[in-house]
Fold each of these.
Amino acid sequence: MHGPGSSGWLLVALCAGTGVYCLLRMRSRIEEQRRTAGGEALMGFGMAAMAVPAAAMAPPRWAWAVYTAVFGAAALRALWALWAARSGLHHLHHLMGASAMVYMAAVTANGTHSGVPVLTGVLLVYFTAYVLRTGARLVPAAGAAPAGGGPPGGARAPGWGDRLELARACRLSMGMGMLAMLLTI
């Protein structure tokens, strides 16, 4: 994290904007959206805070311990949800994301900015695959209805916070942000 100024600020803006959108998704009519939006907002804002360029604001050493504790708790919550659901790739992704944040905070707290190469490599492979998979899911299928065509049968159109493609775009941007942050370790 704490890379060059302009790219660092772009990453901060991307992650903070994603966090704001995820907070807005917590007002959704769809229970699944509400359930996942809080964790995703935490990730977005946490990534934004960790990406602030050091030249602008070097956080105190104890801040990295706070990041480690907060994202450690988020990882435990995701592990519990994964175990309770006995399935669910989304819970696994939250576990991987929170664990990556714990790892990056712990590495940064040591002041070395160089993590365990094998662990960093595994996380890079996971998030690269996630970004490619999520990006591919955003591509419209052949013969799909245009975005402006209303729902079939006169059903009520989903609100802008309930649109699955917007949630996927946010997840894609956070995955790309995670890749950018892992590359600095």
Amino acid sequence: MRFLSLESMARPSLLAVALLCAPAWAERGDRNRPLAFAADSARVDEVRQLNVLSGNVEITKGSILIRADRVEIRQTPEGYQSAVATGAPNKRAYFRQKRQGSDEYLEGEAERLEYDSRSDTVRLVNQAVMRRFRGSTLADEVAGNTITFDNTTEVFQVLGGASSAAPAGRVRGVLTPRDAPASEPGAPGGGIGQ
């Protein structure tokens, strides 16, 4: 697996633009960082405005890290971008990013991760888990079938269902007050399985 910079691709504009739109809660400096990716294959379709990275995909851009089996990136004629990252069988897609102005990180896992720049939302679909870390300590964790995060309002919604990451298809979570010490997963009150 070899990392390529976007500058080494012949026509990288669509891929670069799609991942430049870092969420509002994200580290602002990520927007200006170079994007690098590694995959077993890459396909660029300029006519359909579609880029497909397949096989052991890893994308980095500043503090952003995405790992998936496949990532499809599209652009509408109006200039809006969307990206869908899917995991391999029995392995979820993963993302991690630093939050602006703090030592906090958000990370998420799901069978499918979706980003839509028009609505500025991120959706984690099937076996969805989202975590917030303060440094290396787990502070918050939610799990369900689908987690939707609206970057404009900084509001998230968790829905249960048959493909929930929480037991019995329910929604589960642990939310730590901002001024309270975060707990370790598995500690009393910590972790989704509690």
